[in-house]
Amino acid sequence: QVQLVESGGGLVQPGRSLRLSCVATGSVTVSRMGWFRQVPGKPHRLVAIIDRSGYIDYGDSVKGRFTISRDYANNTAWLQMNSLKPEDTAVYYCNAYIDGQDYWGQGTQVTVSS
């Protein structure tokens, strides 16, 4: 059974950094990993994704500030978030595309506030 285990997140002041990590457990081959975020009353928004070819995409609001990376052998991905802004406050969900199916982590709260 596939599970996505997330870590990181928390409360941070504007301008500071946080790092999220996500591990896909089980003997699987992950095609794509990434994060989406959600604020109450609004749909999920893309933060960043990376696939096995090395293709990377970022949401417009995080380009130049966030960096996604991945360890293919260990089905692990990281999201380095720099220069955080209050508008980055959201629940961040890890996503993995495995054998034609989307899987989601439990979500981790990121709050950017002074």
General description of the model:
The protein is mainly β and 114 residues long. The chain is 0% helix and 57% strand. The protein has no helices and eleven strands. Strands 2, 4, 5, 6, 9, 10 and 11 form a seven-stranded mixed β-sheet that branches. A hairpin with a 2-residue loop joins strand 9 and strand 10. The model has no long low-confidence stretch (mean pLDDT 96).
Give a quick rundown of the structure.
Helices cover 0% and strands 57% of the residues. By secondary structure, the chain is an all-beta fold. Strands 2, 4, 5, 6, 9, 10 and 11 form a seven-stranded mixed sheet that branches. A four-stranded antiparallel sheet has the order 1-3-8-7, with no helix packed on it.
Query: Based on DSSP secondary structure assignment, what is the total number of beta strands?
Result: 11
In terms of DSSP E residues, the strand content is: over 45%
Q: H/E element string?
A: EEEEEEEEEEE
Number of helices: 0
